[in-house]
Design brief:
Blueprint (H helix, E strand, L loop, with lengths): L9 E4 L2 E7 L3 H14 L10 E2 L4 E2 L8 E6 L5 E9 L7 H6 L2 H4 L7 E9 L8 H15 L4 E6 L4 H5 L4 E2 L4 E2 L5 E8 L3 H7 L1 H6 L9 H7 L13 H11 L11 H4 L3 E5 L26 E4 L3 E5 L5 E4 L4 E3 L5 E6 L1 E5 L22 H5 L7
Parallel strand pairs: 7-8
Antiparallel strand pairs: 1-2, 2-5, 3-4, 5-6, 6-7, 8-11, 9-11, 10-11, 12-18, 13-16, 13-18, 14-15, 14-17
């Protein structure tokens, strides 16, 4: 990627303005590596690149990557994110499988960017910084010649990224540290989808957006042809879920509001939708991502294992609340509906309501349950 001076773009925020720009010196890079660890990865000691002794997270490809940061008026980090060309030698092996890079070679990997390790300071989560950060990075990467941006996403953030123009593709995977991640892609040559999903993206990239080529996207990634659930009109959303739900499942019209923040995920046998659990003594830590979400098994089946070693089979039509489970594995190919999205850019932890949802009827009574 071309190197360029850090941006001086400034945006208002409570307590002052923040600036978003590119890191150009080694000292600031080291601050980025330490920030990653302090505000997220210290809870994931098994994650790739984590140096617990040095309190930093750094990988070999970081040296050739572009690091974007948001700074407060005093120059302190508020958020960091990293862009890595997909044709860079020495990429992590698990990226190739998780992000399906061999298939994306049809796009030309020199035009594909892996966007990873977006971390915000806890007091910035849920505010305007994330969106401004996203738009700045989108313009920067598009201007540098990238046409496709990919990342692996936490389940609770899928609907948020879908509303920004990203779409799920490929197959979900459970990473070595135990986190379940879903590959997503933003195709800036798919103007038709961006116009529906996130018109602000088109405005943010005005002047640098490449010509449209929706046919190429459809040929390489045919699974992205379906409009994400959260972008459909309420009647469409209900009809979509009703088509996938088991025969006889009662899905009332009142579920439409909950489905606005829902997403549908394809599952392979052996994969697990269980989000990593916070340490027992850290449940009030604002750095910890959202609690495990609520799943509805649309098709296929899952096996749940409790901390005492007991197992329980959940067929299509069942609800799964991952709280307190030591393992969840899909035992048959199928689709899961994720209802526990927070709607926040990062996982600010909120209390889990003491409300058991046994069926769709309760969604109309307790719609707040989707705001975990």
């Amino acid at each position: 990627m071309d190197r360029r001076p850090a941006s001086a773009d400034a945006f208002p925020r409570p307590g002052g303005a923040y600036r978003i720009g590119e890191v150009l010196d080694e000292e600031r890079r080291e601050e980025v590596y330490a920030f990653r660890y302090a505000h997220y990865y210290r809870h994931l000691p098994g994650a790739e690149g984590v140096d617990a002794a040095g309190c930093r997270v750094v990988s070999p490809h970081d040296a050739a990557s572009t690091h974007i940061v948001a700074l407060d008026p005093e120059g302190r980090l508020l958020a960091v994110g990293t862009g890595t060309p997909a044709d860079l030698p020495g990429l992590p092996e698990h990226w190739k499988e998780l992000l399906d890079l061999p298939r994306l070679a049809a796009f030309d990997l020199s035009k594909v960017l892996v966007y990873s390790r977006l971390v915000e300071r806890p007091d910035c989560r849920g505010g305007t910084l994330f969106l401004e950060f996203f738009k700045h990075c989108a313009r920067l990467f598009t201007a540098a010649g990238f046409r496709h941006t990919v990342h692996y996403c936490a389940p609770s953030l899928v609907a948020l990224y879908e509303r920004l123009g990203y779409r799920c593709y490929g197959r979900p995977r459970t990473l070595r540290e135990g986190t379940f991640r879903i590959p997503m892609i933003l195709n800036v040559i798919d103007h038709e989808h961006l116009r529906r999903a996130h018109p602000a993206f088109l405005r943010a990239t005005e002047g640098v957006l490449p010509p449209a080529d929706e046919a190429l996207v459809a040929r390489v990634l045919p699974e992205t042809g379906e409009i994400p659930l959260c972008l459909q009109d309420p009647p469409e959303r209900l009809e979509h879920v009703r088509r996938l739900a088991p025969v006889g499942a009662a899905i009332p019209d009142s579920a439409a509001a909950a489905l606005r923040r829902a997403s549908i995920v394809d599952m392979d046998p052996g994969t697990s939708p269980l989000l990593w659990q916070a340490p027992a003594d850290s449940t009030d830590d604002p750095d910890i991502p959202d609690p495990p979400p609520l799943w509805h098994v649309l098709s296929g089946s899952c096996t749940l294992a409790g901390p005492d070693g007991t197992t329980e089979e959940r067929p299509a039509g069942s609800f799964i609340d991952a709280g307190g489970r030591s393992a969840i594995r899909c035992t048959a190919p199928g689709k899961l509906l994720l209802l526990g999205t927070s709607g926040h850019p990062s996982g600010t932890r909120t209390p889990v309501p003491e409300v058991a949802i046994d069926g769709w009827q309760d969604l109309g009574v307790h719609p707040v349950r989707t705001a975990l």
